[in-house]
UniProtKB/TrEMBL annotation:
<dbReference type="InterPro" id="IPR000326">
    <property type="entry name" value="PAP2/HPO"/>
</dbReference>
<dbReference type="GO" id="GO:0005789">
    <property type="term" value="C:endoplasmic reticulum membrane"/>
</dbReference>
<dbReference type="GO" id="GO:0047874">
    <property type="term" value="F:dolichyldiphosphatase activity"/>
</dbReference>
<dbReference type="GO" id="GO:0008610">
    <property type="term" value="P:lipid biosynthetic process"/>
</dbReference>
<dbReference type="InterPro" id="IPR036938">
    <property type="entry name" value="PAP2/HPO_sf"/>
</dbReference>
<comment type="function">
    <text>Required for efficient N-glycosylation. Necessary for maintaining optimal levels of dolichol-linked oligosaccharides. Hydrolyzes dolichyl pyrophosphate at a very high rate and dolichyl monophosphate at a much lower rate. Does not act on phosphatidate.</text>
</comment>
<dbReference type="InterPro" id="IPR039667">
    <property type="entry name" value="Dolichyldiphosphatase_PAP2"/>
</dbReference>
<keyword id="KW-0256">Endoplasmic reticulum</keyword>
<dbReference type="GO" id="GO:0006487">
    <property type="term" value="P:protein N-linked glycosylation"/>
</dbReference>
<comment type="similarity">
    <text>Belongs to the dolichyldiphosphatase family.</text>
</comment>
<protein>
    <recommendedName>
        <fullName>Dolichyldiphosphatase</fullName>
        <ecNumber>3.6.1.43</ecNumber>
    </recommendedName>
</protein>
<keyword id="KW-0472">Membrane</keyword>
<feature type="transmembrane region" description="Helical">
    <location>
        <begin position="91"/>
        <end position="113"/>
    </location>
</feature>
<keyword id="KW-0812">Transmembrane</keyword>
<feature type="transmembrane region" description="Helical">
    <location>
        <begin position="125"/>
        <end position="145"/>
    </location>
</feature>
<feature type="transmembrane region" description="Helical">
    <location>
        <begin position="26"/>
        <end position="47"/>
    </location>
</feature>
<feature type="transmembrane region" description="Helical">
    <location>
        <begin position="157"/>
        <end position="174"/>
    </location>
</feature>
Length: 238
């Protein structure tokens, strides 16, 4: 029988868990949250071209780069129960979700100043606080899952959370400086930014509001003119 080289596992999506433990099964799904967030980042950047989302994603990747450096500088092993590979200090999952949740919270509470339109009432301050709390609790669940699955020690997860929080605060301050000094506006005027239709609306509008408002205005105009059918499609006038 022909010999084959041993197969490798794609560690980005490979998670060990106890199939007899429902909590362990849930934690295995929580371990995929960073990958899911990267897909969401890419989707939003492609579909909305918002500079704020691009800045946040850039910070997220820089935070991951910092984690890579810290792991190879500290060189602390994972728990003995862990069968995987790689260093464990600090936890990359904990650092990733902490950066994301805290950056989202800072944006919603200190940078996002939504204005109501004729078609939509934006989130109130209470709703934005509630969303921020949900994001932080979700991040805590992901971080705790790394301990439950024996991928990291509590200390490694705690250091990951601290590193993610510190980098989130630093990145938010850095991007605030870029806005206040006019660098963001300068970047949006560049030819490549205009070529790719990069915009800066989400600071003052809900993410979907501008497109929704245009659609509602068009729909109302066509209804007024009698050019809108019941199934939502325009019809030609005779």
């Amino acid at each position: 029988m022909e010999d084959y080289a041993p197969l490798a596992s794609l560690s980005l999506t490979h998670v060990h868990y106890n199939p007899a433990d429902r909590i362990s099964y849930l934690c295995a799904w929580l371990a995929l949250v960073p990958q899911a967030l990267c897909v969401i980042y890419a989707t939003l950047i492609w579909s909305n071209r918002e500079i704020e989302i691009m800045l946040m994603f850039t910070g997220q990747m820089a935070c991951e780069g910092l984690n890579w450096v810290l792991k190879r500088y500290i060189k602390e092993e994972r728990p003995r129960e862990m069968h995987g590979k790689g260093y464990g200090m600090p936890s990359s999952h904990a650092q990733f979700v902490t950066f994301f949740s805290l950056t989202l919270t800072l944006f919603l509470l200190f940078r996002h100043v939504p204005h109501p339109t004729e078609t939509r009432t934006p989130f109130t301050l209470f709703q934005r606080i509630l969303l921020s709390v949900v994001a932080i609790i979700s991040a805590a669940a992901v971080a705790a899952s790394r301990i439950y699955l024996n991928y990291h020690t509590p200390k490694q997860v705690m250091v990951g959370c601290i590193a993610g929080a510190m980098f989130a605060l630093a990145w938010f301050g850095f991007t605030t400086g870029l806005r206040q000094t006019g660098w963001v506006e300068w970047g949006l005027d560049l030819g490549i930014a205009r070529l790719f239709r990069i915009r800066d609306l989400v600071v003052q509008e809900d993410l979907v509001d501008s497109g929704w408002a245009r659609w509602e205005e068009r729909r109302l105009r066509m209804q007024t003119a009698g050019l809108w059918t019941q199934n939502g499609e325009g019809r030609k006038s005779k």
